[in-house]
Amino acid sequence: MSLDPSGISLREIHSSEEVRLRIDALADRILRDYAGQSPTLVVIAEGARTFAGELVERLSAQGLQPEIVFLRVSRTRGTSLVQVQIEPMDPSRFEKSDVLVVDDIADEGRTLEAVIELVQRGRSRSLRVAVLVSKQGRRKVTVSIDYIGFELKDGWVVGLGMDLNGRFRDLDYLALAEGPV
User: Fold this and answer.
1) For the domain that residue 58 is a member of, what is the CATH number?
2) What single-letter DSSP state applies at residue 48?
3) Distances in Å between the alpha carbon of 7 and those of 2, 10, 95, 107, 170?
4) Helix or strand or coil: residue 79?
5) What is the mean pLDDT of each run of 10 residues along the chain (181 residues)?
6) How much is the pTM?
7) Is residue 73 part of a domain?
8) Are the C-beta atoms of residues 110 and 96 closer than 8 Å to each other?
């Protein structure tokens, strides 16, 4: 456990090695599921960039060259959840595409729900979802997730792109932030 100057302590829950192995396993499943296809990865917000980058690196090494679309979506302000806001995007850009939505965490599910709805309006050929962390017990809406890195019950997760007020995003492992969050 490490202590941040602000009084936040970090408790490691998945080591960098565990994260690497889990992303390898997810990439293997994605490669099998998308064999012969060229998917479009819709990467949600800043938090998912690191996870998506790790996935793309492994997929590319095996010959799968996905198109990558970064979608600016916000749902949090500090540690408070607010209404989902998606940058304007023409949904028709997904028409007849095989889409893989990539997000860092599925908590209440509202962000994924909004992005899935956007992609579906564009009449994609197929749609799958990958998340690094899922908190099924906190889900407020039903969303189908095809690839899950880790299941957690609760807590504020940081590392691998996930942050707490802009901090801890660069950790190569997953930790729970404890203290005055």
Assistant:
1) 3.40.50.2020
2) G
3) 10, 10, 48, 25, 19
4) coil
5) 67 97 97 92 91 95 92 69 77 95 92 93 96 92 96 92 90 91 61
6) 0.89
7) yes
8) no
